[in-house]
């Protein structure tokens, strides 16, 4: 699964879940904690022909979570989802060349098609992974998927409850996983896998509460305008022959709306400065002098990107899941990026044509990540600050991994 596909899937399913929840008639809500144990089996999708041969990928996972959210608005909008932490061990099917992975991911698990059945659920998770076998030019040259021990990880699974009881569930499911370092080092084609799974969940019910119509704001028009600013710091390597991680500095300003203290959408202007572009252009090596001399007239300007993106964010008290899709109005060095990563590794190499696909990648950007807010969204605060972790991409190709912090100002909540 590519980053763009993951972003679109996340937005679509979260939006669909909100619509389904608003249409559903729920009279009671069971609050419970749960522990799950699962086993999965599947295959890695080889990123290139020389990737090491692998047997079946196998994994074991433990999930710990809760649904203890009372009558909070965000829980109603997502039809009272499960949230928690997923820990997993994965054998990728070739211990010598691809090794194993240890993953920790926060997850969101919510029902879909609730008017038809309560047995179908969708789970999405985003976190970090440790991988013990990585690319090495001498000892492991075929593993172009992963070149750093620590990576980001994403998964999306659809489950069906074969057994659905008050204190116990038995599930089968299928889904996709993606592991990537966000181009902090090359090569980084990523580990993409499709899997089937079976798992059990043991539920520990705390109480059953009635859903109060008096506190139900999911059908109201309670909105709040917000203004947001963000500063970020990322890491990126330009290409395999210039493979030292360099900094990416980012800034953005946005405006939008918050609906019912839990669904946030807006437009954002952003600026980025790529240190790897700047240093490589300044060095004026043979690739630059032969093909990109125009970038040397103003290296600082050539290493910048300016654009606009739309954002979609689901607020879950202190946390949020965000997905963004945008347009680069100005990113002159991307043609250089394409050249050195598509065949033009040295002066004598012939790079792939900068055609339609490349031009689309230059203009389309996306982001996927998590935020933590200092003040819970339940209070509809006028002032709030946050920290965030995101993967940024050029269309379907990872661009860089980013940490950021920001400030949000929201005028007093209006009831319409």
At a glance:
With 416 residues, this protein is mainly β. It has helices spanning 3-23, 73-77, 275-283, 286-291, 299-302, 334-341, 356-363; strands spanning 28-44, 57-66, 82-91, 100-111, 120-131, 150-164, 168-180, 191-210, 223-236, 246-259, 263-274, 304-316, 319-330, 364-373, 383-394, 397-409.
Helix content: 10-25%
Strand order of the largest sheet: 1-2-3-4-5-6-7-8
Largest sheet: 8 strands, antiparallel, barrel
* Distance between the amino and carboxyl termini: 41 Å
The Cα radius of gyration reads 23 Å
Strand content: over 45%
Gross morphology:
flat
Give the key terms.
16 strands; 50% strand; eight-stranded antiparallel barrel; 416 residues; 7 helices; mainly beta; single chain
Question: Can you offer a commentary on this structure?
Answer:
It is a single chain. The chain is mainly β and 416 residues long. The protein contains 7 helices and 16 strands. Strands 1-2-3-4-5-6-7-8 form an 8-stranded antiparallel β-barrel. Strand 3 (82-91) and strand 4 (100-111) form a beta hairpin. The radius of gyration is 23 Å and the shape is flat.
SSE order and pairing:
Blueprint: H1 3-23, E1 28-44, E2 57-66, H2 73-77, E3 82-91, E4 100-111, E5 120-131, E6 150-164, E7 168-180, E8 191-210, E9 223-236, E10 246-259, E11 263-274, H3 275-283, H4 286-291, H5 299-302, E12 304-316, E13 319-330, H6 334-341, H7 356-363, E14 364-373, E15 383-394, E16 397-409
Antiparallel strand pairs: 1-2, 1-8, 2-3, 3-4, 4-5, 5-6, 6-7, 7-8, 9-10, 9-16, 10-11, 11-12, 12-13, 13-14, 14-15, 15-16
């Amino acid at each position: 699964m590519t980053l763009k596909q993951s972003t679109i899937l996340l937005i679509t399913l979260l939006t669909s879940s909100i619509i389904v929840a608003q249409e559903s008639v729920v009279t009671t809500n069971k609050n419970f904690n749960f522990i799950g144990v699962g086993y999965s089996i599947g295959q890695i999708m080889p990123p290139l022909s020389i990737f090491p041969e692998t047997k079946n990928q196998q994994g074991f996972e433990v999930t710990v979570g809760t649904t203890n959210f009372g009558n909070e608005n965000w829980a109603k909008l997502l039809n009272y989802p499960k949230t928690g932490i997923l820990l997993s061990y994965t054998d990728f099917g070739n211990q010598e060349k691809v090794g194993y992975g240890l993953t920790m991911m926060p997850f969101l698990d919510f029902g879909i098609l609730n008017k038809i059945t309560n047995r179908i659920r969708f789970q999405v998770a985003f976190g970090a992974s440790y991988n013990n076998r990585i690319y090495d030019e001498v000892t492991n040259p075929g593993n172009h998927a992963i070149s750093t021990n620590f990576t980001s990880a994403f998964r999306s699974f659809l489950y069906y409850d074969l057994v659905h009881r008050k204190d116990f569930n038995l599930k089968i499911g299928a889904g996709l996983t993606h592991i990537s370092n966000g181009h902090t080092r090359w090569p980084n084609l990523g580990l993409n896998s499709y899997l089937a799974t079976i798992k059990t969940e043991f539920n520990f019910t705390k109480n059953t509460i009635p859903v109060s119509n008096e506190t139900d704001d999911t059908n109201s028009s309670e909105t709040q305008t917000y203004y947001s600013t963000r500063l970020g710091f990322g890491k990126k390597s330009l290409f395999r022959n210039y493979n030292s991680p360099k900094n990416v500095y980012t800034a953005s300003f946005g405006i939008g709306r918050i609906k019912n203290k839990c669904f946030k959408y807006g437009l954002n202007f952003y600026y980025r400065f790529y240190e790897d572009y700047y240093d490589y252009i300044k060095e004026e090596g043979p690739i630059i002098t032969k093909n990109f001399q125009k970038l040397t007239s103003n290296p600082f300007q050539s290493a910048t990107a300016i654009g606009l993106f739309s954002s979609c964010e689901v607020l879950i008290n202190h946390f949020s899941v965000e997905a963004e899709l945008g347009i680069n109005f100005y990113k002159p060095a991307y043609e250089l990026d394409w050249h050195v990563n598509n065949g033009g590794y040295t002066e004598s190499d012939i790079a792939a044509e900068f055609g339609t696909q490349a031009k689309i990648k230059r203009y389309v950007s996306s982001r996927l990540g998590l935020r933590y807010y200092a003040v819970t969204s339940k209070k509809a605060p006028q002032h709030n600050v946050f920290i965030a972790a995101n993967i940024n991409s050029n269309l379907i190709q990872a661009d860089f991994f980013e940490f950021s912090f920001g400030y949000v100002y929201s005028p007093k909540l209006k009831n319409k």
